[in-house]
Amino acid sequence: MFAYYLNLARRSLRRAPGLTAWTLLTLALGIAACMTTLTVYHVLAADPIPAKSARLFYVRLDASGLEGYVPGGKPNLQVTRRDGETLLREAHAPRQAMTASGGAMVQRGQDQPRHTEVRFATADFFPMFDAPLAAGRTWSAAEDAAAARVVVLDAPSAERLFGGAAQALSQVLRVEGQPMRVVGVLAPWRPTPHFFDVTSGAFREPAALFVPFATAMQAKLARSGSASCWGDAPVSDVTALDAPCDWLQYWVELKSADDAPAYTQYLQRYSAQQHEAGRFARPPNVRLHSVMDWLATNRVVPPDVHLQLGLALAFLLVCVLCSVGLQLAKTLRRSNEIGVRRALGATRRDVFAQFMVESLVMGGVGCVLGLLLSWAGLALVRAGQTDYAQVVTLDAPMLLAAMGVSLVAALLAGVLPALRAAGVSPALQIKS
Predict the structure, then answer these.
(1) Which pTM value belongs to this model?
(2) Residues whose CB is less than 8 angstroms from the CB of residue 24 and which lie 6 or more positions away in sequence, other chains included
(3) Residue 100 near residue 117 (C-beta atoms within 8 A)
(4) What kind and span of H or E run contains 396?
(5) Phi, psi dihedrals of residue 317, rounded to the nearest 5°
(6) Alpha-carbon distance 292 to 57, whole Å?
(7) pLDDT for the residue 234
(8) How far apart are CA 34 and CA 367, in angstroms?
């Protein structure tokens, strides 16, 4: 019977090509607008590390001076070098990473030096954030403490400089004129959002060169990203050990989310000790953010994206209502045909099923057209100037979502016309 209904749907769509085209275009536009904005939202609001996001926490301490102090206010966004190194040394978490962004002139042999984005990090950075290796290894905690002259490259840099990951191993690069040996190469890796350092851009690409934190400090590599300082003493070097400046991101990985209260208590004790010692002018005020909480705190999803999503859903609803009107008009034109079918023995349920199958066919064709328009819309997004433009793609989950949206839209658009068709009186149509 379903094949018969499909055949009737095909004939019906061909019988009124103009009305069919308008109905399909209306559905396709609504689906395309909805899927384009929904895809953007999906990419921006996605969990960047779902396997362990509930166990990764960002640390905030309130080390600022008393100027502008408000009891219970928000603590510093980042930590000072003194606090970061102390927390790292006391090691109250199974894994912990101190990191910051920087830049350096990098040179291979006699090639022209080239400015490269650098990330300073401690040894746990790579296993904590699931950074995949294509070749070699990362540095150890002992190498980090000893300020070893070792680096890890990203895959594109290894390909450009040495022709591949394997060829890059054990090669020497000059970083700001200082020789450093390549011990590892990362496989392609771009967590989205760039959660471990949103201060330098939530949707930027990871750095091309990774250097041990102690090595970067000893080599006096230039840092980048945000920093804030306090107090009356002039600060000539923000990165100095005792500089009253926060500029480092500090992350911990706990065994489970249930361990977060205990680690928070440790941070409160540490802050109380620093307050009593006179380092912290303010009383203890700490925060421990999970990955998704940290992204929400920093409003990684721009407010205008929420607005666009609401408008797109409203536009889809308008398109569905327009499609309902068009299909109702088409149904009224077919009253005689429906009356004859009913007189020949078709039940109301048969007529309803016939028109719902026709709506599903319309939805399937509208889905295809809507996807084509969605790809065009996403191409326009990628051509834009927003910082997230290049990461917006239509992945497999969003393709399934598009099919689901199309199915729901087709069903909503087809129910009222199908009920209207099933309610046609055969006697009145035969008399006319």
Answers:
(1) 0.81
(2) 362, 365, 366, 369
(3) no
(4) helix 396-422
(5) -60, -40
(6) 9
(7) 65
(8) 12
Beta-carbon contacts of residue 180 (< 8 Å; ≥ 6 apart): 149, 150, 151, 172, 173, 174, 211, 215
Contact 12, 365 (CB under 8 A): no
Pairwise CA distance, residues 410 & 303, whole Å? 30
CB 253 within 8 A of CB 60: no
Spatial CA neighbour of 102 closest among 183, 192, 216 = 216
100, 118 contact by CB (below 8 A): no
CB 63 within 8 A of CB 280: yes
Peptide bond into 193 cis (omega under 30): yes
Length of the chain: 432
Residue bearing tokens 């689901």: 404
Report d(CA 130, CA 195) in Å as an integer.
13
Q: Smallest Cα–Cα separation from 207: which of 289, 129, 146, 140?
A: 129
For 231-279, the pLDDT digits (tens) are: 876 677 889 998 999 999 999 999 999 999 999 999 999 999 999 998 9
Given a contact cutoff of 8 angstroms between Cβ atoms, the answer to whether 152 and 183 are in contact is yes
Q: Calculate the dihedral angle through the C-alpha atoms of 129, 130, 131, 136, rounding to the nearest 10 degrees.
A: 130
CA distance linking residue 284 with residue 211, whole number of Å: 32
Distance, in Å, from the CA atom of 272 to the CA atom of 278, rounded to the nearest integer, reads 10
**Closest by Cα among 83, 97, 63, 75 to 254:** 97
What residue type is assigned to position 311 of the chain? L
User: Phi, psi at residue 248, to the nearest 5°?
Assistant: -110, 145
Cite the DSSP H helix spans in 334-395.
335-343, 348-382
Residue 9 binned pLDDT confidence (cut-offs 50, 70, 90):
low
- Residue 11, classified by CB atoms within 10 Å of its CB into exposed (0-12), middle (13-18) or buried (19+), is exposed
Side chain identity, residue 402: A
Burial grade of 416 (CB within 10 A; 0-12, 13-18, 19 or more):
middle
Check: CB of residue 332 under 8 Å from CB of residue 339.
Answer: no
Q: Is 199:249 a contact under the CB 8 Å cutoff? A: yes
